[in-house]
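Usage example:
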Amino acid sequence: MTPELPRGWDRSTEDQADPAVIPDTAEIEVPDELRAEIEEYMSRYPDHRSASIPALHAAQRVHGWCSPLAIRQVAAVMRVTPAYLSSVASFYDQLNEDPVGRNKVYVCTSVACHLVKAKAVFEAIAAAGHDLEDTEIREFECLGACDMAPMASVNGRYIGPLDAGDAPEIVAAIREGRTPLPGRGLEDEDYRLPWGGRA
Amino acid sequence: MSALDQLRLIKNLNDPKLRTIAGYEEGGGYRALRKALTEMQPEQVLAELENSGLRGRGGAGFSMGKKASFLPKGAMDKYLCCNADESEPGTFKDRLLMQKNPHLLIEGIAIAAVAAGANRAFIYIRGEYELQAGILEAAVREAYERGYLGRGILDSDHDVELVVHRGAGAYICGEETALLDSLEGKRGNPRLKPPFPANQGLYQGPTLINNVETLCNVPSIIEHGAEWFKSVGTEKSSGTKLVSVSGNVRRPGNYEIPLGMRAGDIVYGLAGGPPEGRSVKCWFPGGSSAPVLLEEDLDLDYDFETMAEAGSMLGSGAIIVVDDSQEIVGLALRLAEFYRHESCGKCTPCREGTNWTVKMLERIDNGEATPADLDTMADVQTNIMGNCLCVLGDSMAMPIGSMIEKFRHEFERHIEEKRLEHGGLPLAAHGGRADVAVGSPAA
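Running the assembly step on the lines above writes:
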């Protein structure tokens, strides 16, 4: 992984402007379903701020990313500042403040996968899918499926073990909206590891 | 395949019946919760857990019963957090338990909550485990419908509200105080301890935090008793343990073993050992944060004390096997990159130490390093240890430090090869003086 510069360091900001205040739901339109979902999350906890991660996840599902509008909508419903939510969204790998794509392809390249040549799998998928629209293909730290190594998570579905030769099929499936590698997903009925064991 | 006469934690795990509450009840499920509520006082439940010697299965290995007894008594909001963040590289045991037997965890949580007097419980599950979170949420709904969760569970005066909370991708949130901050809706930064969560945790209230596997052991301890639990394992490491074996082995997977089993029997006997023609170069006994051990250490018993005495740790029970085809420098770099990425940045030794360790390892590959860099690198590791709010930095420092110590010759050879490859002069040309031997044109 190459070192990345902190997000936004090279963008101009309005440093004379006042910090954004909590937007009012009267001023900003929030889709009814999103609002209901966020309010349901808030009701689960003694302190409604605990709902920030689920709420941002929900807004990300609607908008595709934690866009400034998405953050303002969540802020309005949760009665917190956009800056507070931005501090949360920028901390977690699965929340994106950039439009990286709705399809999420996380290729695990952590220690156990590294030992069985996960990097080659990542490079093959990244190369095959370089022109995929609306798709984020990235290396990810340990996904907790080292028995399936090398593996990847495609929109939350764990598949593996993979080799570089699987890349075209995975990319084609994403392009056509199919489930990649049926039968080789952790949730698939009677999924087995290559040696016969169950995961 | 098993090393036990009878599996305990993962007994009948692939039985599809376990997916529904009716099937779980049919196999005796929720009997232990009923027993804890109707036949025992909370103090007796705590005593049983403490007597069983059950130690935390998430990494620290602290007595579960003792930790639960630290919570103040009396009526107030108390919390139980199940740590299902399972992000230690190499660990995938909790994933199995949650996916295949969600009600076992819920029953364990309910019993522990009753024992500790906690009225609100949360399962903090890592965001990547979407499948497992969905399964748990469905199971929690079922448990509410049957009265195992909610107000006055099983007609007792105990309330246990349980919420499944999904994280969003951050290794640090497996650290207990970072988990609390994350659950409160903030960035997952660790807190200064003390105060410990037992006194001041979630929403500033008393909080018990336990790993998934720890809680999954609770129902059978209550049902069969502490003596039954202790009948397997060693004196100080009682019971069975799920070990996740991965890396260069023929049969990677989760295995339930009696604690104290010979490590070699796990790596070779259960997991099949390294591929044909390969040998074990080193292995991590407890996730990637554990100092590496060598092939001869496979003769050791796999339990908390023996691993600690050998200078490593049992940790989460994740054994990662590295065979002799692997380069130790590349492995060290991959590890250091992981910890650099996951450092929350709050404490300087960890934030800077992980960053500089990566840079120094990259220098080796760029042919810019000298053997003196190894001492600097080892020194950086020493300066991280114990100097941060949490152990994330230590988790890099321990394995990297152990690699430099145990594979110094390989590091030196790698440094020399890379320097020559990049057009540098051999160390001997400088009279063996590492400090002037920076021969790379880039230097």
